[in-house]
Amino acid sequence: MKLMSNLKKKQICAAIICGLMFMGGHAEAAVDLYGAYNGDIENVNGAAITDPSDLMDSNIRSEKADFTVTGGEWKNIYGGYGATGYIQNNAVTISGGTVVNNNVYGGFVAGGTATQNTVTITGGTVNGNVIGGWTSTNTASGNNVIIAGGEVKGNVYGGYANTVPSTVSGNTITLGDMNNPDRYAQITRNVYPNAVYMTTFSMDGALFGGTVNVYNTGNTIGGYLSALGTQGSEDEPPILSTINFYINAADMDATGSKIMLNVANEASVGGNTTICAGVRNVGSVKAGDRITLLQAGTFEVKSNTNYKTMSSDGIMKVDLDFKLYKGDSEVPITTTEKLANGKIIAIAKNDGTADLGPDSAAKSPVETMAASVSLINAGADMMAGEAMTGAAQST
């Protein structure tokens, strides 16, 4: 077992606070940062390190990786990393002035299953891709990516597999922050909830299913958004794709000029896609108020695209009418074509006022998850000042 250098001991001891925070900061060239590293050991989780050979066996088998990186320059950041087995239940948050030169992974496994891993971006810059769960030859399922600040200059994948056949399913991407209307996503390239072996210009595998949740206005995607489903066949089950728009009542008005998600290049929906929208249980809405849910340079709408008003706790009883536009001209909602400067607008069909009864505090499952992550982030940010002071005193 290689012994830790004094410098590395100081970096790790000063940077990890209750397993939640890593400050970073390297005078030398950027290095990789791991929350968990397993070699060939299954079901592994741990605390943030920069050199896998520094791990003790007890760290390898600890509960899970759940940490926040608030600064420094890094090569890649991994919530959980493994050669085989299950890389699961790891979480990493990127905030502050962090710079990641390549990619951020919630879970990465060469020959196994990446599941239930989460990446949250609230600040900093990621020059490469953000991937909830990555596998080379097996399964990536149930992973989550939350983009609520900072800048991502590459692609965003909920789950990704590098070879065919592999299973990629049930992954989720959330844009924006339910607790802060000023937080939104800035993504330079493309967004894919589920992907199997993709290159920049072509897709040589599957690209269907998954969920995209959108909060707040001002979310931007510089490239493509794919939210396609499949109808299935005798041999294959159908694959459902869903986009959920959680509308802030204050963003709706008579003009509909505010845009929740703007895709610069092309957005593709259909095959078996459901577009859901609901007005969150805050403020009030008048009949006729509207908002632009999605706008795209080219909006490709395939058959079997469905539109639905949400009906759940935390959502006002406001029925929504969905309208499809090509430029400034309305087209039938059943249109199936590529629309230049296409957009979907949601219009309130009735007045709505926040329900202040006992159910008003209830949240959807998606909101509950986002709230938990936001709480962790807030606590980590609050401790940042104390940790930096401690790091300075230890040198």
Rounded radius of gyration (Å): 22 Å
Q: Mean of residue pLDDT? A: 78
Structural class determined from secondary elements: mainly beta
Unreliable stretches (pLDDT < 50, length at least 5) are 1-20, 39-50, 52-63, 200-204, 356-395
Helix share, percent: 10-25%
Q: Quick one: biggest sheet?
A: 10 strands, parallel
Give the helix tally. 3
The largest sheet has its strands arranged as 1-3-6-9-13-17-20-23-25-28
Q: Could you please describe the fold and organization of this structure?
A:
The chain has 395 residues and is mostly beta strands. Helix content is 11%, strand content 42%. The protein contains 3 helices and 32 strands. It has helices spanning 6-15, 57-60, 365-394; strands spanning 21-22, 33-34, 66-69, 73-74, 77-88, 91-94, 99-100, 104-115, 118-121, 125-126, 130-135, 139-141, 144-147, 151-152, 156-161, 167-169, 172-175, 186-187, 191-196, 210-215, 219-221, 224-228, 241-247, 259-270, 273-279, 284-285, 290-301, 305-309, 320-326, 329-331, 338-348, 352-353. The chain has a 10-stranded parallel sheet with strand order 1-3-6-9-13-17-20-23-25-28. Strands 2, 5, 8, 11, 12, 15, 16 and 19 form an 8-stranded parallel sheet that branches. Strands 18, 21, 22, 24, 27, 29, 30 and 31 form an 8-stranded mixed sheet that branches. Helix 1 crosses helix 3 (365-394). The longest helix is centred in the last third of the chain and has 30 residues, at 365-394. The radius of gyration is 22 Å and the shape is globular. 49% of the residues are buried.
